[in-house]
Structures are given as C-alpha cells and as structure tokens.
TrEMBL record:
Main location: cytoplasm
Keywords: Cell cycle, Cell division, Chromosome partition, Cytoplasm, DNA integration, DNA recombination, DNA-binding
Residue span, Tyr recombinase domain: 197-414
Gene3D superfamilies with a match to the protein in the record: 1.10.150.130, Intergrase catalytic core
Protein name: Tyrosine recombinase XerC
Domain Core-binding (CB), first and last residues per copy: 66-174
Superkingdom of this protein's organism: Bacteria
InterPro entries xref list: CB, DNA_brk_join_enz, Integrase-like_cat_sf, Integrase_catalytic, Integrase_recombinase_N, Tyrosine_recombinase_XerCD
Location(s), subcellular: Cytoplasm
Pfam families: Phage_integrase (PF00589)
Keyword Protease: no
Amino acid sequence: MSIIVLKLRFRLTPHMDSSSDISHPAVRALPATSPTPLERLHLPEGLSGAQGKNRAPARGAQIAASDDLSAVAAWLARYANSPATLQAYRREIERLVLWATLQRGKPMSSLTHEDLLAYEHFLSDPQPAARWVLAAGKKLARSHPDWRPFAGPLSPASTRQAMVILNACFAWLTEAGYLAGNPLSLARRRRGPAKARITRYLSHALWDAVKEAVEAMPAETDRERLHAARCRWLCTVLYLGGLRAAEVAGTTMGAFFCRRDAQGTERWWLEVTGKGNKPRLVPATDELIAELARYRRAHGLPPAPQPGEARPLVLPVIGREKALSRGALHLVIKEVFGMAAERLRARGPEWEAQAELLASASAHWLRHTAGSHMSDRQVDLRHVRDNFGHASIATTSIYLHTEDDARHQATQERHRIKWAK
C-alpha cells in the first residue's frame, strides 16, 4: 500500500471558551485564531500531545509517532488507497483536533470521556459559528483564509457517524500503543431503529423530471453541446452502472471490454475498482454502450473505446483530457438536479416540495435510485448485490452465487434509462 505523508506544519493559536483549560501555559500564550486545515497544522508543545495525559508508555508503542498529529497521520495512512474514505476520516479527526485545541485547550491525547460527550453536543451546533462554519452558499478551497471545517450543524445521523469514525481512530491508537485507553469505549451503545429502506433516492417520476431537464439543455454553441452531452453521459453511467462518483472519476474508457458467453453472444462489461480497492465487473448493457458511443461521437472520437484506452470516463468540456475529480462530478450532478428542480417549480406551487427534495439530492442518490429501481423491476437482489459491489444482502448471502451471464441478461432486460430522444 502506498504511504500517505501528511505535511502537518501550520500554526494553531487557540481561542478559549468557558470550558477551556486556561491555566495551561501554552494556552495562555496564544491569541485567538480561526481553524486551519490539518495538512498545515503546527501545534505548540503544550498542545502537541507529546505529554498527553492519555499517552501510553513509549516502550509499548507500535508506531513511531511522538505527538498527536504524527499519530493521526499514521492512522490516516491506512486509507491512502481509498480516497473517499480518507477524505471522510480526515474531516472528522481534523474537526476533533481543532476543537480540542481551539475550544477545549487540550491536546487530543488528553481528551476524556466527558470531553467527548461535550464534543458530540458541539457537532449539533458548532459555536461560535463565525469560527467554525462556512458562510452560507460558499465552498472554499482548504487553502483559503475563510475556510471552515463545517458547512453547518450535523444531523443526528451524521453526528453518530462522526463518533463511530472517532471511536475507530481512538481504538486503533490504543491498539498501536500510542494511547493508554479509548475514551469513547465508555460510551453507551445505542441501537438505532432499523431503516426499512434507503430514503435518499429519486422516485420514477422525479427521475423522469431529471432526464427531461437534461434533454432540454441548450446545445447551440460547442461548449453547450459538449456540456449537455457530458451531463447526459454522467447521469447514464451513474444510473445504469450504479457507480459511485469516485468510481467514475477513477475509471478510464479502456475499462470497457467485450467477451462472448457460452452461446457466442457478445456482452460488454465495465471493470471498476470500488471500496477497499476491490475490482468488480459491471454489466455494460446495450443502452449503456449506445450512450457511450453517442458521447464519444460528440467529442469526435470513434464510437467504441480501444483496449487500454487511457481517456477518462468523463471528459472535460475544454482543455486536455484530464479526469474530473469526484467533487467536480458531484457539482455537475448538482447542477443537473438544480435545473430539474427549477423546471418543477415552474409547474406550480404544488411541486415545491418535490423540487426541494430534488435540489437537496447528490450524485450518490443516483446509485440509490438505480438500486431501488432495479428492485422495483424485480431484478434478483443477488444481481444488484454483485453489480453494486456490496459485500452481502444479509448474513446468509455468503451462500448465494450468481452466474455473470445471467446477471448481465437480467440487468439488460429490466434496468433501462429510456431517454426520450
């Protein structure tokens, strides 16, 4: 596994609230400041964790970290091959380190169970907002001076997920001999109510509204034409393939390939690398291949990709053929959903609730939408599991097996996008 190196070199000067340890000499010496991203963080000795109260004896350590930032970097390095996981885990540990030092006046390795209960409450309303929360509607680079670690208060579900991630970090640092104990291990285990089904997906009617919005996009100039083609292709591959945005960003045109089944029928497949760096084969249905050819022709390319072709799966409208990031793909889909929402609002006030739902959707909703629609159309759940790269349907699914060709046939017959034009 490749090693990730975090350059943890920026200055942090905490501003205390009523719960801060203001007696600490390092705290008294530092004026107020705004949070700064983890990769540029430099902590003074008193807040570095070199002498953290929860540090384990050095003789038992299994990692070379001598302070909290080095320990965090060692934990995050384990996820270097999973960019989406790395980003999510970095976000949560970054928020905690900044809160601990800026708001609590403690190094992370001195946090107690009570501190983490206070932090869990803080997540539901990060205050003072001017320090912690981005200005409404802004999405700033991490290098921007107005960057903040929060876009707003976390929902109960997001708060639970954040604490799960932090618990995993503390547990690992304890096992690695860096911490003497995991302060989150004392938390009461709460069993949330089981969810009967995914809720973040589009109904068939809303999905039709999205397709109508894409088909109505202007195409008078070359830029408009290529942008409309990109929106249509991205919606197609996310829906028909059930892919994650990160999987689209990391896949090339050369990942499509054709093979014959036992009866001599040619079937196209798309090989993607999913979570945990696990490869899987996704059925490339006739519709998906036709849309691929349509998209490539829009860029003046031959309809079928060549084996090993290095072009990204989604091409930029202008400039060199560089793959769009997961974030950029997300913004394209958000634009599509926004256009569709405006078209719904134009139908009348009775559509406002549906428009709001659509405007709140993200690229990952299309994966949930694809899975829900496949289930609606009676596609075998084992096929859905294998198409999406899920580990299991339920505990007993380890005993289930599907043949690739049967899965391809079922997907092609029952999972379609049906563009009007």
